[in-house]
Specification:
It comes from Sulfurisoma sediminicola. With 147 residues, this protein is α+β, with helices and mostly antiparallel strands. It has six helices and two strands. The protein is 50% helix and 18% strand.
């Protein structure tokens, strides 16, 4: 068994049991965004969190142990994503990436936004013309150092 197998087990159990990610997050005690990323193989759970996830999804002990192993983050199967929703984020960065970079540098100076000291919130935003996806990302600014 490998971490991808565990992700497939979690996704299958979630569908079969009709479990919502927000409900899993509430039981784990963390945000739905972080817990979902963890269940999909992008974050490391501690023992207590992994045990909780294991109980929710009916995972065997080997799978619970794998939830506690540091994953290969950002491990999409292709360089350019083919899933339409994920591709839109790729497209968004292709179009607005230089704008993000320019505006962050203008506001903060030379550096990067952390994806480690990071949080995200995703909400549905009602709109008469069609509901919108509202995503807020907050990452610590890390200035480049001179030496």
């Amino acid at each position: 068994m490998n971490r991808n197998d565990v992700t497939e087990m979690i996704v299958a159990a979630r569908i079969q049991k009709g479990i919502k990610w927000a409900d899993v997050a509430k039981k784990v005690g963390l945000s739905k965004e972080w817990v979902t990323a963890g269940c999909l193989g992008q974050m490391t759970f501690d023992k207590k969190q992994a045990t909780t996830v294991g109980k929710i999804f009916g995972l065997p002990a080997e799978a619970v142990a794998l939830l506690q192993v540091v994953p290969y983050k950002g491990s999409l199967p292709t360089a350019v994503p083919t899933d339409p929703l994920i591709y839109r984020f790729y497209e968004l960065i292709s179009v607005y990436g230089t704008t993000f970079k320019e505006l962050i540098h203008e506001e903060f100076g030379d550096g990067i936004m952390s994806a480690i000291d990071f949080k995200m919130d995703m909400k549905r935003e009602p709109n008469a013309a069609g509901d919108r996806v509202n995503i807020v990302m907050s990452g610590k600014f890390l200035p480049y150092k001179t030496y």
